[in-house]
Amino acid sequence: MTPWPAWTAAALASALLAAGVLVNRRVVGWLPDDVPGLGRKQHGRPIALAGVLLTPPLALWMLWDPFWPGDRLGVGAVALAALVGWLDDRRKEHGSGLDWRHKALGLLAVAALAATSVCNPTHAPGQWFAFAGFAFVFVNALNFLDNQNGVAAALAAVTLIAAGGGRLDGFLRNDWSAAAAATALAFLPWNWPRARLFLGDAGAYALGAAAAIAVCWWLRAGPSGLWLAAVPLADFTQVVLVRLWLGLPPWVGDRRHLTHLALRCGAPPWALAPLFAAAAWALARLA
Predict the structure, then answer these.
(1) Comparing C-alpha atoms, which of 78, 73, 77 is closest to residue 57?
(2) For residue 270, what is the enclosing H or E element?
(3) pTM of whole model > 0.85?
(4) Sign of the alpha-carbon torsion through 227, 231, 236, 241
(5) Residue 122 burial (CB < 10 Å; 0-12/13-18/19+)?
(6) DSSP state of 226
(7) What are phi and psi of 237, to 5 degrees?
(8) Fewest C-beta in 10 Å: which of 128, 189, 219, 280?
(9) Helix (H) or strand (E) holding 197
């Protein structure tokens, strides 16, 4: 079968989102809901967590890309990330999420698969451990920034486009990183500027795993590839350090992220996604 061009991943993702939401509303409520509360997201009604529906396009284009040898391991990383997030989303709907230790073990397995899709651990163990550590941090970092409409999806798209060389013609080829970016962009109309759906941990982890793999390919040439992930890494570093300084668990959400700081400085909520995407793109050009 002749693979489809990368931009069609957006069409598939949009169709899956529309069908999944329709079934959720009219047939059976199978999607977890993010209910109103005092957490990081502020909304007046339950909103479905539908990011898990982005997993099929991400996986398909990884398997189809003829120039990428890490397809099966990469698909395993994305699928496992979505599963860990889905279980966490389901548990949060009825109270607390997964135990942080279980979630950490799951994401460590995701990071190991992501690193192995790029680097053979027996040939370069030091590089493999560095890639696995980066992937673990980045997957969590992108999920940390899923606290304002459109920010996480926009950052994932920018990272994936930049990791593909920043060439928009990648959308016309069978390029898995461009297809993953198109998948992230397809979610934006559902989440920004007004949220009708949320990524949830399943969607944020899956996009984070795909973007981490793409960045790891750049990191093989040197640490300058970290510029591709500069915005999520900066937010992750500062918020974890602040929580540790205050004696709080690093994994417990709060309103101390860069997005919340921008809101307190007067930025309107709708402007956060384009603002952070522009910053990420400018920094990625340094890679």
Answers:
(1) 78
(2) none
(3) yes
(4) positive
(5) exposed
(6) G
(7) -65, -50
(8) 189
(9) strand 197-198
Structure tokens at 202: 């399943």
Residue pair 70/183 in contact (Cβ under 8 Å)? The answer is no
Distance, first Cα to last Cα, the chain: 35
How would you write 6-66 as a 3-class SS string?
Answer: CCHHHHHHHHHHHHHHHHHHHCCCCCCEECCCCCCCCCCCCEEECHHHHHHHHHHHHHHCC
- Cα separation, 20 vs 96, in Å, equals 25
With vertex at residue 149, the alpha carbon angle to CA 148 and CA 154, rounded to the nearest 5 degrees, is: 100
Place of tokens 């795993």: 209
Distance CA 78, CA 98 (A): 18
Residue 79 tokens, joined? 């699928």
The continuous run of DSSP H or E covering 198 comes out as strand 197-198
Query: 3-state DSSP call for residue 246?
Result: coil
9 Cβ partners below 8 Å, 6+ apart?
Answer: 57, 58, 60, 61, 179, 180, 182, 183, 186
What does 57-109 look like in DSSP terms, one character per residue? HHHHHHHH-TT-TTHHHHHHHHHHHHHHHHHHHHHHHTSS-S-HHHHHHHHHH
Angle between helices 8-26 and 55-64 (to 10 degrees): 150
Q: What is the pLDDT of residues 118-174, one digit of tens each?
A: 999 999 999 999 999 999 999 999 999 999 999 999 999 999 999 987 666 667 777
Residues found in the chain: 287
